[in-house]
Amino acid sequence: MRRPSRLAAALAALLACAPAAPRACETALVLAVDVSGSIDRGEYALQQQGIAQALSDPEVAEALTRGQVALTVVHWSGAGQQQVVLPWQRMLSRDAVRRYAAASAEVPRAYDGSDTAPGDLIRFAAQLFEAVADCERKVIDISGDGPQNAGGPTGPASAAAHRAGLIINGIAIEDMGASSPTTQFYRRHVVTPGGFVMTARGLADYPRTLRAKILRELARPTG
């Protein structure tokens, strides 16, 4: 039997030692946080700490790194009031997730005491994905505690995002009790076809809801 040449053996050794090809980014995720006037100082802190807690969860951290997810955090309020407070970051390791979680807990509030303009937020967030065009899925997560009372119409902005291939999901922060006006508004006007809304009963329920929503968004389809 012919022995492999020295060149073939050397090539085989090089291939064995070569680093694995980097995995593609599965999802780019905008976490859009409501900082309108209905959110007081304590409630704002609960939202930011909720993001930190959700990202620090071992199951969430594993899903983020497995999918090489890109994250950015946006604060939004009234017309023309949208600001990136944490820029895009690829979750390439558990350390990257931990650092991003810690940074999210310390972000200063971008706006205070203004209205609620989800349509303007959607149009702003849709433009952010140009920086992460290689990510397969592009998702806008909007959390808020009330319907629109300012800015451009929400429904057409959501429809335009859907036509551009974006997904919009939401967390509706409701008061304790049975009524769900924010949830209904999000279902009718905010989320895109195939998107979903999860309801947090009070901001104390926000960390649990955000954790569940991120895991649902990043779950790999089966079948």
Order of helices and strands: HEHHEEHHEHEHEH
As a whole number of angstroms, the C-alpha radius of gyration is: 20 Å
CATH superfamily: von Willebrand factor, type A domain
Mean pLDDT over all positions: 88
Question: Would you give an account of this structure?
Answer:
The structure is a single chain. This protein is an alpha/beta fold. The protein has one domain: von Willebrand factor, type A domain (Rossmann fold). The chain is 42% helix and 20% strand. The chain has a 6-stranded mixed beta sheet, sandwiched between helices. Helix 7 links the parallel strand 5 (167-174) and strand 6 (197-201). Helix 2 (41-56) runs antiparallel to helix 4 (94-105) and helix 5 (118-128) packs parallel to helix 6 (154-163). The chain is globular. Residues 7-21 have low confidence and may be disordered.
Topology:
Layout: H1 6-17, E1 27-34, H2 41-56, H3 58-66, E2 70-76, E3 82-90, H4 94-105, H5 118-128, E4 137-144, H6 154-163, E5 167-174, H7 181-190, E6 197-201, H8 206-218
Parallel strand pairs: 1-2, 1-4, 4-5, 5-6
Antiparallel strand pairs: 2-3
Helix pairs in contact: 2-4, 2-8, 3-8, 5-6
Could you name the key traits of this structure?
single chain; 223 residues; alpha/beta; Rossmann fold; 6 strands
Summarize the structure.
The chain has eight helices and six strands, in the order αβααββααβαβαβα. The protein is an alpha/beta fold and 223 residues long.
